[in-house]
Amino acid sequence: MTSHIATTASYAQLPVIDLSAADRGPRSRDLLHARLHSAAHDVGFFQLVGHGVTKAETDALSTAMRAFFELPEADRLALDNVNSPHFRGYTRTGDERTGGARDWRDQLDIGAERPARVPGPGEPPYWWLQGPNQWPAALPELRTAALAWIDRLSAVARRLLRELLTAIGAPADFYDPIFGDQAHPHLKLVRYPGSAGDGAEQGVGAHKDYGFLTLLLQDGVGGLQVQREDGRFHDVPPLENAFVVNLGELLEVATDGYLLATNHRVVSPAGATERFSVPFFYNPRLDGKVAPLPFPGATRAPGVTTDPANPLFAEYGYNELKGKLRAHPLVAERHHGSLLAAA
Ligand SMILES: O=C(O)CCC(=O)C(=O)O
Ligand SMILES: [Fe+2]
């Protein structure tokens, strides 16, 4: 497969954004804003350094993640997400779908740790997305590391969002009311087990993320690709100590398309090579409604992408529910037949 090979030198790496520049005085912060504005507007993807997350924090999460995937399959299947109407828990390799085709990865889905809130008659069905996680009894350190990561990355993403809003001339605190203590962050621990062996190369198919910002920790294997201005998918080479950041659909909605939610995908590693990644999704409250952002570029905004196969919802819960029903058909059929019928 050659279609993803970059042909232009400028495509070799994504823009690199140093968040610590925000604390080094006004000139340095202005320069950060110029770079961030361009990266978010022109590409929708960048590498984030200077985020303050330490190697010890990253190692604690990575070690617990690898230990999870080394558990006997029965221990992982004890957390099968098919048993969770909240789409939490373990998805075995081959059970997830993107773009209607099978993804070749297994993963643990973790969200804010809250009691279930079963929607009553007339209440939005997205309340199903709130509920308890499923944790491996044999690995208590996984729960500790994952919940700490959610807190830590929520703080980084909050800082980054404020700088990004400032960079495009918007009020930094404009979306504070839809985050707060009822925000709905999400974390996945993901393993790509290598080639499926049948010629399909889809680790995860092309998609956009549902929320505001995604901060991805990837190992050194590679395989993540983003769709760029030329319409082609380009490799995102791993960069040590950096998070790959992409903008989600809600920022596209918020800015009427001025900021891009960029399509991305993962090509399966060759042979039996495993790849591990940890995407963290910075999402607002399920009932948070994204009001149009007041900023100077709004008058030049091109409008949001219109794709009948992927409507964008301004009320976050609907946007996430759309994605989960599509990605996890076994959970959807077991627990949410009436929602599938209504869709
Ligand atoms: O594993 C990766 O590098 C990306 C995963 C991803 O895009 C997702 O799960 O939304
Ligand atoms: Fe993604």
UniProtKB/TrEMBL annotation:
The keyword Metal-binding applies. Residues 182-284 form the Fe2OG dioxygenase domain. Pathway: Antibiotic biosynthesis. It comes from the Bacteria. One of its GO terms (biological process) is antibiotic biosynthetic process. Keywords: Antibiotic biosynthesis, Iron, Metal-binding, Oxidoreductase. Pfam families: 2OG-FeII_Oxy (PF03171), DIOX_N (PF14226). PROSITE patterns: FE2OG_OXY (PS51471). GO terms for molecular function: metal ion binding; oxidoreductase activity. InterPro entries: DIOX_N, IPNS-like_FE2OG_OXY, IPNS-like_sf, Iron_ascorbate_oxido_reductase, Oxoglu/Fe-dep_dioxygenase_dom. Belongs to the iron/ascorbate-dependent oxidoreductase family. This is Oxidoreductase. It comes from Streptomyces malaysiense.
